Amino acid sequence: MKETFAKLSPFQVDPERVKIGFAADDFEKASAEEKSSMVETRKSVSYWRDAWRRFRKNTVSMVSLMVFLLVLFFAFIGPYLIPYNYSNQYRSSQKLAPGEYSDKELLIKSVEDDIDFMFATALQPGSITALSAGDYYLKYKGKAWCFSLGKTTGDTVFAIIDGEFVKIMERDIKNGEITASKPVDYFKTSEKDAKAQGYVKLDGVRSVFPHVFGTDSTGRDLMARTMYGARVSIIIGVVAAVIVLIIGSIYGSISGLAGGRVDFIMQRVVELIYSIPEVLIVLLLQVVLKDPLQNWFDSSNTVFAKAMSDLGSGIVSIFITFAVLYWVTMARIVRGQVLQLKKQEYVTAATALGASNARIIRRHLLPNCVGQLVITTCLQIPSAIFLESFLSFLGLGVSAPMASLGSLCSDAIATISLYPYRLVYPAVVLTIIVLSLNLVGDGLRDALDPRLKK
Amino acid sequence: MGIYILKRIGVAVLTLLVIMTITFFLMNAIPGSPFLTEKSTPLQIELANKKYGLDKPLIVQLKNYIVNYLKGDLGTSLKMQEGTSVNEIIFGQGKFALSMRLGLISLLVAVVIGIPLGCLAAYKRGSWLDGFLRVVTTVGVAIPTFVLAALLLIVFAVKLSWLPTLSGNLTGWKSYVMPVISLSFYYMCYIAKLTRTSMLDAINQDYIRTARAKGVNTRGLILKHALRNSLIPVITYLGPVCAGIITGSFVVESTFSIPGLGKYFVQCVLSRDYPVIMGTTVVLSALVIFMNLVVDITYKLVDPRITLVSKEE
């Protein structure tokens, strides 16, 4: 009996040598202290936490991430911090160099110290001269300060001086000098009453904000345009990458999971699209889609069409181009991953339990490719931004007054021998975006897919 | 091997056909008639349509294109002087030759400078040179071609006036410098990065250790043993490079005022000159597809381990 037992289990201990004895306290309940020693002290590290830990150690990627966040701040928060708008043309301030003030702005600046609030015609978009006769109000300290103009005035500053007592001054500017300075009759009321009585609001400023990047030939502030352009470029990049992600991952996982003849046909389609020199087709598509899209925007009333028309036909056709031609790389990568994953036991188990193919893709295959998906999507963004800037450079892409970094560069190149600095800002921002995203993508690759690490 | 090449040529021809079909339908979908001007009457448009065969059903038009292309006749322009043939537009006045020359030189520069730089970086791994090259190549792949071209133009032509602003017909080496640099810089950097990575991969392989143990000196090790294997990813990348250089030529040729084919393509798309769009698309696509074919075959020749007929299932 003993021998057979020993044969059955190689780990069997000889029972004669083991002395088994129990003490009474062996049967007492474990104390809290004893219990706590059995609890795992280290939390299990999730995939993302682990990846983040690796990513954080990578100095270059962390710095790039910070830089990219700064660019995001510049592009999305920045426009709210400066008083200029990307499309407004400040007619007295054309062709200013970075930080330069126009004569009128300088003049207004010279008086800004002794006033608290002002409205200056030279600072208003489009209005170089006139403020016609009528009733106006300035909003200051929550109150509306109403006054009436008897005659049309030329270059004028209306200022509220809030020292010992409040007064509104009208100062005329002619030939670069303040020619007249006279107090204006006013009365104070609430904004609501002022509006009700038909007074028109004048948007005032406290001081003249510098044109940090200068202005373009039509007097638009280049910093506002660069911020706006960066925003447009980033949005294009992200949306295009998401489109590629969706189409590519669905196509790739179906192709990989189905295998056989379906896979064969789907892969021939991919190869075909792969070998088309896409830029030739992209250029054609841009021209072809322009008018039909515009018609659709004009005729359709849905929210979706409205949103698309805000973006403009140029950008929408870039999205369509990505949806048609650029998903193949993603599809190839996902297919490769799925081919490996589908042989795993858990997929077999899911199949055996009766999971549908759609569920297997959704719950088992795609979540396991997530590292690859994130990396490829991240690297897709700069390539979309590149393509858009290329198209804008050729005069396709976004249309004025909208701006993207590419169209800003293209505008700048047209006048490069006179105003070389105009190219610098959009080009630098574009390069920083692409560079930081490339480096973040590299870092993600190392962090999410340690197998690939060299 | 022979079967493989035949197969690939078959696929290439099929791809070209598909591209022709797509282009044909796309350009017909561009709204408006190519003959529509402020002065033209409906009758004139109708007559012009009849003259150029645009009144026939689309399918027939497409068939005509394909039949004529097989004969080597790319048709006649709708917009240019009466009866200017597309062959003349594309190949005449040295346009095609000009673009080809620029493209090939840029390709050569990218490869001939990129690969040694990559080897150097891998060889001097961890040194300041490696760090410097890494910074240059990383920044290099983040600068768009047109920005680089404009920067070169402003620095070397406008400020320093060392090089001519307009490159024109590329006479003399000076006119080549800026277009070639702006066209090849991105790819040079990319190739250098690629070479460095795959070189480092190769250096860690066992056969390199064996060779080193046998006393091969380092230079021989890099040049003879490691380089050959690390070139494979670089060769695969050459296909996209060719397509990219053609695309880049659109930008470079318009920046430096070079009257090449790339500059022309954009113009003809915007002016809706159907036969010229078709002709340039097909010629450029054929070029890209041909280069891809060459790359694939070279790929196989360089690395006999690769089985090109996939046997994944």
List keywords for this structure.
A: 454 residues, alpha+beta, four-stranded antiparallel beta sheet, 11% strand, B: mainly alpha
Describe this structure in words.
The complex is a heterodimer of chains A (454) and B (313). With 454 residues, chain A is α+β, with helices and mostly antiparallel strands. Chain A contains 17 helices and 8 strands. Chain A has helices at residues 2-8, 32-38, 47-57, 59-81, 103-111, 191-196, 222-258, 260-275, 278-299, 303-311, 313-325, 328-341, 345-352, 357-368, 370-393, 405-414, 421-448; strands at residues 117-120, 134-140, 143-149, 156-162, 166-174, 177-184, 187-189, 200-202. In chain A, the strands form 2 sheets. Chain A has a 4-stranded antiparallel β-sheet with strand order 1-4-5-6, covered by helices on one side. In chain A, α7 (222-258) packs parallel to α11 and α15 runs antiparallel to α17 (421-448). Chain A is extended. In chain B, 73% of the residues lie in helices and 0% in strands. In chain B, α6 (128-140) crosses α8 (174-203). Residues 308-313 of chain B have low confidence and may be disordered. Classes of the chains: A alpha+beta (454), B mainly alpha (313). Chains A and B meet through α8, α9, α15, α16 and α17 of A and α1, α7, α8, α10 and α11 of B.
Write a compact overview of the structure shown:
Chain A has 454 residues and is α+β, with helices and mostly antiparallel strands. Helices cover 56% and strands 11% of the residues of chain A. Chain A has a four-stranded antiparallel sheet, with helices on one face. In chain A, strands 7-3-2-8 form a four-stranded mixed sheet.
Cα gyration radius of chain B (Å) = 24 Å
Compute the CA-based radius of gyration of chain A: 34 Å
- For the record, give the distance between the C-alpha atoms at the N and C termini of chain A, rounded to a whole number: 58 Å
Number of strands of chain A: 8
Structural class of chain B: mainly alpha
Could you state the order of secondary-structure elements of chain A as H and E? HHHHHEEEEEEEHEHHHHHHHHHHH
End-to-end distance of chain B, in Å? 21 Å
Gross morphology of chain A is: extended
Strand order of the largest sheet of chain A: 1-4-5-6
Mean pLDDT of chain B: 80
Order of helices and strands of chain B: HHHHHHHHHHHH
